[in-house]
Amino acid sequence: MKMGSMRAIVLAAVAALLGLPLAGCYNPQLFKPDGTGGFFCHSDDNPACPDGTMCVVMPAGGTMGRCMPPAGGMMGGGPVQIPKTGSYTGPQNDPMLATLMSCPDSSLEPNDDPASAISAPNPVPDMTTPKITKMAICPTGPNPATGLHDVDFFKISGKMLPSGTLTLKANVFYDVSYGDLDVAILDSTGSMLASDGSSVSNGCVAASIQGGSGDYYVVVVGANNKDVNRYDIRIASFSTAQTCAPPSGTDGGV
C-alpha cells in the first residue's frame, strides 16, 4: 500500500473517532480550556502548524507545544497561557472596568493577536524608550470585539534592531489591588521566550532575542484570563544580558 493511501486511511480513522468531517479534519475547536487537545508542534519546524495557527510552547524554555488559533480560541483569553507563580490575597479594589466604555484603550481594540498587535516604539538598544500609557485589560468578562477575555499584543520588529544577540525587556506598571496582570515575550512562531506570572504590583520580563530579523511580541493578560486592570508598559532593548529585579513600583531602570 502506498504511503499516501495509508495516511488517508489513518486520517479518516482519526476523523471518525473524533466525530470530525473528513474534509479539513484539523479543527481548532478541539482545544480545551486546560490547554490539552489539538495538534502537538515543534517550534523549530517551518511551518510548525497549519495555516491560521501558531505553535505556542508552554511552559517557557521548551520546544514542544501545541498549535493554537490566533485571538485566543483555545483558552478564552489569547493564545498565551502564562504560568502563575503566586496568588494575590491582599486587599481588592474595584478597577471600575466593567464595560467597554470604561476601557481607556478601547480605540486600540482589538489587539488580541499577532495580526492586530500594536506596534511598540522602536526599542533602540541601551536607549530609554517612552512608556505606552493608558492601557488596560478590559472589560470584565468577554471583549465584545472577540467574544473572549481581553489580551493585549505589542509587536517589536526585529528588522528594526541591529543584528546580533540582544535582550528584550518589558516593564508593566500597575497596582495589583485592582487586578493581577501577567506578561510574556513570544517569538514569531508564538513560542514563549520568557514570562512573569507573579502576583504583585508591577511586572517584568526579559528574554534574549536576535536582532536583524523576525518579529517579537510582548503580551499582557489578566491573571488566569479573568482579572482586569489599567496599566502602562515600557519595552526596551539592550546590547548586554539583562534580568528583571524584583518588582518595586518603580520604572525598573528602563
User: Whole-Å distance between the termini?
Assistant: 62 Å
Rg, rounded, reads 19 Å
Relative strand content: 25-35%
Shape: globular
**E-strand count:** 14
In what order do the strands lie side by side in the largest sheet? 4-8-13-10-11
Class inferred from helices and paired strands: mainly beta
Pick out the low-confidence regions.
Answer: 14-36, 58-62, 70-78, 249-254
Share of helical residues? under 10%
Number of helices: 1
Largest sheet: 5 strands, mixed
Helix and strand sequence: HEEEEEEEEEEEEEE
Mean pLDDT: 79
Secondary structure layout plus pairing:
Layout: H1 3-18, E1 40-42, E2 54-56, E3 64-68, E4 118-119, E5 132-137, E6 142-143, E7 148-149, E8 151-157, E9 164-173, E10 181-186, E11 192-196, E12 203-211, E13 215-222, E14 229-238
Parallel strand pairs: 4-8
Antiparallel strand pairs: 1-3, 2-3, 5-14, 6-7, 8-13, 9-12, 9-14, 10-11, 10-13
